[in-house]
Write a structure and sequence with these properties.
Shape: globular
Number of domains: 1
Bound molecules: NADP nicotinamide-adenine-dinucleotide phosphate
CATH superfamily: NADP-dependent oxidoreductase domain
CATH topology: TIM Barrel
Distance between the termini: 51 Å
CATH class: Alpha Beta
Radius of gyration: 19 Å
Helix content: 25-40%
Number of helices: 10
Strand order of the largest sheet: 3-4-5-6-7-8-9-10
Order of helices and strands: EEEHEHEHEHEHEHEHHEHH
Length: 330
């Protein structure tokens, strides 16, 4: 079946925010392909989510070398779908990938060396059958490689035309400051930081958000729904087919029960606001203008459509904020 993007796709379904002090705008919701797009998943479900996302103004798809399982299969599937359906829309898309976690055996298959980063980028481009990605990330800081070397590799990726922008992920505030300084000196400013950030994971609030603001770097928050905990998915049980029910992935069934008391209390506030819990969890992040985009995952078009509606109400009154804070800090 041939895919033709909706002619309505830029008619306010999705807002856009400028990424730090760059010229690039990102949709407030971006779609990540960490789960649900691998070799173990149903190809057509992933394909329909990509269609739905783009039809509704979500112009940013986020990948990494190791997404799957098996590692690399999300990029392969994305490449296949891209070539079937999105080739003529390349200039309307922001496609990112990353290197940092284990991808191949031996001393050059992970972390932050120039050798690993640039080889990995070549492999990613091959798997996705792309000439370039829009954003190439160092996926995690490497304690054993000089930061200069990792940043020089990102700079090289951009200079070679294989990436348009450079990004960092999971870097603490101090290293973010240093990385930003090095990249600026090299002439390839750091576009974006991708940290984990949700109601349940707030480490960025301590220092990182101020740092990126000062440095003019955008922020894309990953796992904003705490992998599904901050939704109504687990209110009654661990449903068949949910992330926590699967043998692969990073949400274990034993993580569900300890979160439930807070999830139920938050769900009550969401309902009072006329939102689902997923929508409120996304809105709670987007209320801070420093957050350029919220990087969600989804396993169905229905979830995507639910999450897109979060933008309808990003406002929280003092009472709601206090009540939420009370639950989160209990
Ligand atoms: N840089 C990094 O180190 C890093 C690490 C992790 C992730 N990421 C990026 O962040 C992206 C998102 O991460 P994530 O998948 O953990 O994000 P998430 O948005 O916190 O969780 C997504 C999961 O939540 C559930 N969900 C989503 N919307 C829902 C709704 N409306 N109602 C009920 N359940 C809903 C689905 O679970 P079910 O599958 O159970 O339906 C979905 O798979 C990744 O794809 C990746 O691009 C980056």
């Amino acid at each position: 079946m041939e895919y033709l993007a909706s002619s309505d796709r830029y008619n306010n379904q999705c807002d856009y925010r400028r990424c730090g002090r760059s010229g690039l705008k990102l949709p407030v919701l971006s779609l990540g392909l960490w789960h649900n797009f691998g070799g173990v998943d149903t190809y057509e479900t992933g394909r329909s989510m990509l269609h739905y996302a783009f039809d509704n103004g979500i112009t940013h798809f986020d990948l990494a070398n190791n997404y799957g399982p098996p590692p690399g299969s999300a990029e392969e599937n994305f490449g296949s779908i891209f070539h079937k359906d999105f080739k003529s829309y390349r200039d309307e898309l922001i496609i990112s990938t990353k290197a940092g976690y284990l991808m191949w055996p031996g001393p050059y298959g992970e972390w932050g060396s120039r050798k690993y980063l640039l080889s990995s980028l070549d492999q990613s481009l091959k798997r996705m059958q792309l000439d370039y990605v829009d954003i190439f990330y160092s996926h995690r800081p490497d304690p054993n490689t000089p930061l200069e070397e990792t940043m020089m590799a990102l700079d090289q990726a951009v200079r070679s035309g294989k990436a348009l922008y450079a990004g960092i992920s999971n870097y603490p505030a101090e290293q973010t400051r240093e990385a930003a300084g090095i990249l600026r000196r090299l002439g390839t400013p750091c576009l974006i930081h991708q940290p984990k950030y949700s109601m349940f994971e707030r480490w960025v609030e301590k220092e990182l958000l101020n740092t990126v603001e000062k440095e003019g770097i955008g922020v894309i928050a990953f796992s904003p729904l705490a992998q599904g905990l901050l939704t109504d998915r687990y209110l009654n049980n661990i449903p068949e087919g949910s992330r926590a029910s699967k043998s692969w992935g990073f949400l274990r069934p034993e993580q569900v029960a300890p979160a439930l008391e807070k999830v139920k209390a938050l769900n009550k506030i969401a309902l009072q606001r006329g939102q689902t819990l997923a929508q409120m969890a996304i809105a709670w992040l987007l209320k801070d203008e420093r957050i350029t985009s919220v990087l969600i995952g989804a396993s169905s078009v229905k979830q995507l459509s639910d999450n897109l509606q979060a933008q309808k109400n990003l406002y929280f009154d003092e009472g709601e904020l206090r009540a939420i804070e009370g639950i989160l800090t209990k």
